[in-house]
Design brief:
There is one protein chain. The protein is of the alpha/beta class. Among the domains are: 398-563, Rossmann fold, CATH 3.40.50.1700; 625-738, Immunoglobulin-like, CATH 2.60.40.10. 30% of the residues lie in helices and 17% in strands. The chain contains 22 helices and 27 strands. Strands 11-16-15-14-12-13 form a six-stranded mixed β-sheet, sandwiched between helices. A hairpin with a 5-residue loop joins strand 24 and strand 25. The longest helix is centred in the middle third of the chain and has 17 residues, at 333-349. The protein binds alpha-D-glucopyranose. Alpha-D-glucopyranose is lined by residues 76, 105, 149, 202, 281-282, 492.
């Protein structure tokens, strides 16, 4: 068959295309008709780059030859204008010149590292979170990246799972809003702009519910829980236009997500009508052998492709077996054609057929990377992410005229540990990343003497540094400590059975506390940690997560009051690993404990209070916010109507501040039992010292829907409670009745 140049085909079509969508569909079909079966399977194949990101690439390796033969549709972990250009040039040597897609884990920044996603979630600031993704997109797109494997939208209630750092915490309502904000941030105004990258909602689905918080472990849950808690952020990401999805590693109710037709075909591509494509997680197609779901890669390729996994990341199951499966009639050609159509459609939408090199632009890289605007946004995001957990006797903010401050702990002068997991290191980085020490130094100048002592290591048991640290504390007017996790202690494959402060860090805190000096403890971590003694005995505590490039500047802004902390926890903090999973939107049970001391045949631990150490939504301010009583516009809500709950918030403190006012509801009786609280709204309110303001929330019947035992998304008439407060525990209460008509 004489192949007319596909460019000629495109030229003809572009003259007759009646509109962008129809034209792309026609173009995709025109290319598809020219493709051999092997070339189609090639588009469903993704390899990892194995060259140094900034070094020369080997030009004759097997991967390069596969690219030249059109046997590769995408690569990951290949960045840089030069590097991506060279590989794209190889793709242009293939018969049909189908461009490569370059994907990368741009989770919380590329050149400018932002706070980890869980920290950003603590800001409850959707605009700032969207900005963070926007900066990340602009910086990585300038490096030839077309596609980020983010946002991770997995709901997680178990902090033993190290990947909680990557998501938005335990709540589906907050998690859904953040998922949408991140998708829009990454994809920008229009997919196809050269500062926009395809988003990837991951990991589909319920990966955060791994049994025991052990990464990659099985997930077993009712479909009702799946729909009620774990799917909503994915639907939000899809509704926000997410171009791709990534299936998760876990098996869900016995079927690996990679080949879970219920997830990929029935829900995602069926009910939700997803038009993008699904990429497997790393090697997850082949890992179904380990799952005991298939016998070999041949069976894996069959199961995954038929279930709706469109692209095989790194397992080579597709490239080695799919063409044979089709020829043998084991996999319909239509399955391959549909997957390739989805992939090619995104390549057309990204403009890569028009110009495969449009993302390879050195001038844009120079302009976008590390510019002052990006750093300023990172600093603002970091400030908004810091949670004030305790501040007795107003130890914070520290006066800038303090004569001597001791800065103590294993992270005080830490540089790269501020970047957290899923971050990139650059040769010129160390000068750019701001440690807490550097941030304080910059903030205070020479008027204050700073004393430093590391005190102890992160995980070791040596107390050799304690004396020096205690001496520094005794010579200071106030002490600031920075303890917690090193950057590789939370993240992928970092599940831990103990999530206490590692090593002897809490012993060091005790030794410093014993000096009687005013003490601030800052905790760097990628997850909720357990630090009960510190929480009970230290007067001031800041949760500083992993805040990224500008960490020290943001920390100094908060320590000295130039930024009044406003963050609120996106996850409950347990008192003990034995309490996990602990989350706010739990059911009442038939024997709810009346309080923390009620042990008389109730659902409680005899050795631990029932509630978490710090509840979901908790966060203090240097201001203090008091809540009036809730006024309801009506005690009765009818279908087609709404009720409004209004409350007056007063900043009775001495400084201006921002409060995140949270709205929860409780459906008192349902056809399935309902949580004791469900977040249904929040508003961030800035109040000057002494200022009061009315804050209102409107509730309509559709806000009260849930999945019943038939998986119908319904609201049911009956009594409801409504709560408003600054966290999920300390709330004012009201009530209303939802009528059937
Ligand atoms: C990893 C992660 C996934 C990531 C992918 C590519 O194993 O599970 O989140 O996007 O592989 O690095």
């Amino acid at each position: 068959m004489r192949y007319i140049s596909y460019l000629a085909v495109l030229l003809v079509l572009s003259l007759h295309g009646s509109g962008q969508k129809k034209t792309i569909a026609q173009k995709v079909d025109s290319v598809l008709r020219l493709m051999t079966l092997e070339e189609k399977v090639g588009q469903m194949n993704q390899y990892n780059g194995d060259w140094e990101a900034t070094g020369p690439i080997t030009k004759d390796g097997d991967k390069q030859n596969q690219i030249r033969r059109g046997m590769l549709g995408s690569m990951l972990n290949v960045t840089g204008v030069e590097h991506t250009r060279e590989l794209q040039q190889m793709a242009m040597q293939s018969r049909l010149k189908i461009p490569l897609l370059f994907g990368q884990d741009i989770i919380h920044g590329y050149r400018t590292t932002f706070p980890i996603p869980l920290a950003e979630a603590a800001s409850w600031d959707l605009a700032a979170i969207g900005q963070s993704a926007r900066v990340a997109a602009k910086e990585c797109a300038a490096a030839g990246v077309h596609w980020t494997f983010a946002p991770m939208v997995d709901i997680a209630r178990d902090p033993r799972w190290g990947r909680v750092m990557e998501g938005a915490g335990e709540d589906p309502y907050l998690g859904s809003l953040i998922a949408a904000a991140r998708v829009k941030g990454f994809q920008g105004g229009h997919l196809g702009d050269t500062d926009a990258v395809m988003a990837c909602a991951k990991h589909f689905a319920a990966y955060g519910a791994a049994i025991g918080g052990r990464d990659y472990n099985s997930v077993d849950m009712s479909l009702r829980s799946l729909w009620e808690y774990y799917l909503p952020p994915f639907k939000a990401a899809l509704d926000a236009g997410a171009a791709t999805f990534m299936n998760s590693f876990n098996d869900l109710n016995g079927i690996p997500a990679t080949a879970n037709g219920y997830l990929l075909r029935d829900i995602l591509k069926g009910k939700w009508k997803f038009q993008g494509f699904v990429v497997s997680d790393w090697g997850s197609v082949g890992e179904m052998i380990n799952h005991g779901y298939v016998n070999d890669n041949y069976g894996a390729a069959k199961a995954a492709s038929i279930a709706g996994c469109d692209m095989d990341m790194e397992s080579r199951s597709y490239i080695k077996n799919l063409a044979t499966l089709v020829k043998e009639g084991k996999v319909p050609l239509a399955v391959v054609d549909e997957a390739v159509r989805r992939i090619l459609t995104k390549k057309f939408e990204m403009g890569l057929f028009d110009d495969p090199f449009r993302f390879c632009n050195d001038a844009r890289a120079a302009k976008e990377w590390n510019n002052a605007e990006n750093l300023a946004k990172a600093r603002t995001m970091a400030e908004k992410s810091i949670v004030l957990l305790k501040n007795e006797r107003n130890v914070l903010p520290i006066s800038k005229t303090t004569k001597t401050i001791a800065l103590i702990g294993p992270f005080i002068k830490g540089i790269r540990d501020n970047l957290g997991f899923w971050s990139y290191e650059w040769p010129d980085d160390s000068g750019r990343i701001v440690s807490a020490w550097a941030g304080v130094q910059k903030k205070l100048g020479s008027g204050t003497q700073l004393l430093y002592a590391q005190g102890c290591g992160v995980t070791d048991s040596s107390r050799a540094g304690f004396d020096e640290a205690v001496a520094a504390a005794k010579n200071a007017d106030v002490v600031v400590m920075q303890v917690g996790e090193a950057r590789d202690m939370s993240g992928e494959a970092k599940s831990r059975s103990s999530i206490r402060l590692p090593g002897v860090q809490e012993d060091l805190i005790k030794a410093i506390q014993a000096t009687g000096k005013p003490l601030v403890v800052m905790i760097n971590a990628g997850r909720p940690l357990i630090f009960n003694w510190t929480a009970d005995n230290v007067p001031a505590i800041l949760y500083t997560w992993w805040l990224g490039t500008t960490a020290g500047d943001a920390i100094a802004d908060v320590l000295f009051g130039d930024y009044n902390p406003s963050a609120h926890l996106p996850m409950s903090f347990p008192r003990s690993e034995g309490q996990i999973p602990v989350y706010y939107n739990h059911f009442s049970t038939g024997r709810p404990a009346k309080n923390d001391h009620d042990l008389y045949y109730v659902s409680a631990y005899t050795d631990l209070p029932n509630d978490p150490k710090f509840p979901f939504g908790f966060g203090l301010s240097y201001a203090s916010f008091t809540y009036g009583d809730i006024k309801m516009s009506s005690a009765v809500l009818k279908p087609g109507q709404s009720v409004t709950a209004t409350i007056t918030i007063t900043n009775s403190g001495r400084v201006d501040g921002e409060e995140t006012v949270q709205l929860y509801i409780r459906d008192m009786v349902g056809s399935v039992v309902r949580p004791v609280k469900e977040l249904k709204g929040f508003k961030k309110v800035s109040l000057k010292a002494g200022e009061s303001r009315e804050v209102s929330f409107t509730i309509a019947p559709n806000d009260l829907r849930f999945y019943n035992d038939k998986l119908e998304y319904v609201f049911e008439p009956g009594d409801f409670k409504l709560f408003i407060g600054g966290n999920s525990r300390d709330v004012k209460e009201a009530a209303f009745i939802l009528k059937a008509d």
